[in-house]
Amino acid sequence: MPKKTSQTIYLDYAAATPMDRHVLDAMKLYFTDKFYNPSSTYMAGRNVKQDLDEARSKIAHWLGARPSEIIFTAGGTEANNIAVHGVMQNHPKANLVISAVEHDSVLEPASEYEFQIAKVSKQGRIDLSDLASKIDDQTVLVCVMQANNEIGTIQPIKEISELIHKIRNERLKKGNELPLLLHSDSTQAANYLDLHVARLGVDLLSINGGKIYGPKQSGVLYLKGGISLKSTILGGNQEQGIRSGTQNVPAAIGLATALDIAQNKRNYEAKRLQKIQKLFIDGLLKIPGAIINGSLKTRLPNNVHLTLPGIDNETLLIQLDEAGVMAAAGSACSASSEEPSKVLRAIGLDKAEIQSSIRFTMGRRTTELEIKKTLQILLGLVS
Ligand code: PLP
Fold first, then answer.
1. Residue that terminates a domain, selected from 228, 245, 261
2. What tens digit of pLDDT does each residue of 114-139 get?
3. Residues 253 and 274 both lie in one domain
4. What's the 375 CA to ligand 1 centre distance in angstroms?
5. Whole-structure pTM value
6. How many other C-beta atoms are found inside a 10 Å radius of the C-beta of residue 339?
7. How far is the CA of 173 from the centre of ligand 1 (A)?
8. 159 and 276 share a domain?
9. CATH number, domain with residue 299
10. Contact predicate 183/141, CB 8 Å
11. How much distance in Å is there from the Cα of 76 to the middle of ligand 1?
């Protein structure tokens, strides 16, 4: 990682991560010398196609998938949209169930079809019996993210997968051959969790580069072999016709390099950040009335989300920024929206509590010293 250039403390890694130098180095050649279209028939183009396929294989390796199951997309939003629209448009009379804490890039496409929302607990974990009750004979897709972008709660994807298989088998016995697929948005999980699709038991999975020290607008949709999707982006038939358009080769190379680094480091980084997270949470709980949101046990190691009753989060964020600390009120992706966070509503926070909540997300450059400084600044501001 490059050295920091200023005294500011960046604590919004769930919104964006700085690109790793190795990622940038790996990408450079594909903007200049190896700029060829990977679909071209001449040797230079075929060489680029080979490099693109190597990047595909690298990603497939970490997902325990086949290279043919990896579809390059322009980011997480696009991967989620392709997954939801692609499955639902293939089954026009069917419905889907999504968790109450999904990102808008799952919720918005889902709301174009008949859909239901499965409840989560106060900690943001999926309520499995509520999920089961909402899956009916016409359900073809269930979307549950691997880890939440606002409160960091990790979902029991394996358990959800087992439940879905049980329901699917019961349906088969009744002669209902409709598929029942599980999609997981793993964009916030890729730095810290196992993405192996068979161990998770997922049929579709999304990741992006912008959250793992890779390029923004780079992403992947894993699509289990044998599952057919209705193509929603039509054109030149690239990416098996599922995502037409000339591939962004530098972005794909960057994403593969970034995922390689992230997954190689993930145990080390998770342990390192868990220690700092504990220090942070212990310090924050010294503020009278402070409440940590989300699960304390099944939580991303880089996430700290809290409510400070009586404090206006917008004002506090500005004061923190002036003091050199960059944090967030919630999802940066919906920062332009005035609407209170759906995730926080889903875990039972009221409007006032939502307006008093802030999110800190740590990353590779975060140090214990930075967190101690942040605590000092924060305690000074709220006291
Ligand atoms: N899903 C989650 C959980 C996210 O946090 C984000 C972005 O913050 C996205 C999807 C969208 O990803 P992208 O910005 O790459 O489109």
1. 261
2. 999 999 999 999 999 999 999 999 99
3. no
4. 28
5. 0.96
6. 8
7. 38
8. no
9. 3.90.1150.10
10. yes
11. 5
